[in-house]
């Protein structure tokens, strides 16, 4: 059973989305990846959203650039939590993606993270936090990650000397 569906609008999003995949793997969160374009594959998108819960996913992470309708349209077709990752684009540096994802109407929530790689990593962490509410192994991995992060930050003080 996959815990997370990692969906991107285009294969060109993979370099940023790979940050999400790598961190999910580090946290021992199972996932699988899909390319589903909101604009070029609308029927596939609707079907995926409507059947995601039946496929036993617990969280959907949806990364999209430009008009970035993917996270919102998935959220419109499921009651699973959807985390939107705005892809950093060349045209408007990801602001178009961010605004498209974050401006959801009342009643169709999408949790939105930062633009680009930082957001991609935070999406993995947010998904893990959601899963950790029910999964003690994911919780332990998340706690260990936080401890490593703190240790690395503390040790970075040595670079100042």
Automatic annotation (TrEMBL):
Set out the biological process GO terms recorded for this chain's protein.
Answer: 'de novo' IMP biosynthetic process
Q: Where does substrate bind?
A: 10, 13, 40
Question: What does the record give as the reaction this protein catalyses?
Answer: 5-carboxyamino-1-(5-phospho-D-ribosyl)imidazole + H(+) = 5-amino-1-(5-phospho-D-ribosyl)imidazole-4-carboxylate
- The EC number(s) given in the record are 5.4.99.18
Instruction: State the UniProt keywords alphabetically.
Output: Isomerase, Purine biosynthesis
| Pathway entry | Purine metabolism; IMP biosynthesis via de novo pathway; 5-amino-1-(5-phospho-D-ribosyl)imidazole-4-carboxylate from 5-amino-1-(5-phospho-D-ribosyl)imidazole (N5-CAIR route): step 2/2
Please report the stretch or stretches of sequence annotated as the PurE domain. 2-153
UniProt-listed InterPro entries: PurE_ClassI, PurE_dom, PurE_prokaryotes
Name of the top EC class for this enzyme? isomerase
**Annotated Gene Ontology MF terms?**
5-(carboxyamino)imidazole ribonucleotide mutase activity
State the protein's purpose: Catalyzes the conversion of N5-carboxyaminoimidazole ribonucleotide (N5-CAIR) to 4-carboxy-5-aminoimidazole ribonucleotide (CAIR).
Q: Which family does it belong to?
A: Belongs to the AIR carboxylase family. Class I subfamily.
Protein name in UniProt = N5-carboxyaminoimidazole ribonucleotide mutase
